[in-house]
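Question thread 4412

I'm putting together a teaching handout and wanted feedback from people who do this every day. The idea is simple: show students a protein as raw sequence, then show them the structure tokens that encode its fold, then repeat with a second protein so they can compare. Below is the first pair exactly as I plan to print it.
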Amino acid sequence: MFEKKKVLVICQSSAGQMYLGIMLERIGYTSVFSRTASEGALLAGKNPLSMILLDGDMLDGDRSVAVSLLKNNQPVKALPLIVFLTTKNQAICDSLISEGNTVIISKPIDVSLLYGILSRLSGEPRQAPRVSARMRVEIEEHTPDAYLTSVNVSEGGIFLRTHLPLHENTVLHLAFTLPHDSAIIRAAGEVVRKTTLGLQFETEPGIGLRFIELSENTRIRIRNFVKWTLTGDLDWDSDVR
């Protein structure tokens, strides 16, 4: 079974931990929580971690101490560090970058941006988050099925359920409508992977397509749909103080 990568989340508020924990779980990561950098360093000795997320909204001196501890403590100093900040003070950002931080992200957090950064830092090939979406997808080519049902979608591609998977590198022209939308999306996708029925039903059979022709406006519409699905019920401003 696939094991989610663990991320150390250092955040002083319970509301902030809840917000970040939900978001990370929805994009495929497991959170290990601590309220302080010193507590996080102790937890790192007991958990295999992929990276650190630090809520940097604290007094300048406290933030500097926290970053220094994380960058000099043996269990955690080699891990990528991502700092979240409400302030857009360039001097603070420059100071953090000079201290060797990997990435600085402004609040409220853009889940697509966060997903891409986490993927890059953890060596994952997928750069855009995906969500479950059951849609009727029309296929223009003369395939065994004129319509297939989607399983999930991202701005990078779509997975279609079928027990008759097509060969990899096959190009299909698709038409579908996002949930809660009325405008038809037209895109071309290339089959990059396929799953078939085995002796046991472990995953839905079908084909994964990477979009190769997609207008920028359409890509933004899909991105916004994914972001709304993942975080539409979360609000940093009201949930996190």
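The second pair follows. I'd like the answer to focus on this one:
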Amino acid sequence: MGIMLGSLLALALLQAPAAPALPPLRRECFVLEPPASAKSRDPIGWAEFLRRESPGGMVLECEYVFVRPGRDEHWRVRHVEQLDDKGPRLVWREVGTAAGRTLTLERAREGEEWRCQAFERDESVRCAIDTSHGAVFPLYLLELARKGQIGAAQMYLFDPLETALVPRHISTVYEPASGKRERTLELERPDGTLAGRYVFAGTELTAFQLQAGGWRARRIEPEEYVRAMGGAVDLAGPRGLPATCSDSAK
């Protein structure tokens, strides 16, 4: 009887369907080029956008690396949006700046209120965010744009730099003549100034600019990004692991 039971268990294990594989990590890398008016044409930094699947949803990430003149110093900005069973939650970190600012935004455990915490030097600020007009996370907005799920709209977008929800007019310009299915998503402030311009080819982000006359981000291969980072980023290494969203600064 024991032998038969063991054989049946072994057979069941062999016939059990394999767990579905998670989709591969999506990685988009960019070089940040100075505006046309700048004297130097050297890059002022680099950026990397990631999306990974997570139980119950996804995690979106963006990291900027800025270099100072001479490239002797640099600072990073890390932006994570956790949209899964543990979220929704946004984490923003500035590493290498004098302040070393860290900000988190998440829904309160009870009710619909959103709580924001900002840590800077030895100070900690907590506040509630009013979402009665609706609210969208910045990286999630780009995710909607990739899939063509947003064209023109008026939205309140959370801006980590302002620690507030800000109104944005959103429009999409289609360029069928390009042959690349290109379209441009533009965000404008109430005064009409540019708050973001993102160019998509199909579902891929190929270029972007955060303000008129400012630096522009141009898509590059991940290998070029790794070389720019001095080989410090392993394409198959730690960046492929789930994001950590602790409240601790740096």
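Top answer:
Good format. For the second protein you could add a caption like this: Residues 1-17, 232-250 have pLDDT under 50 and may be disordered. DSSP finds three helices and 14 strands in the chain.
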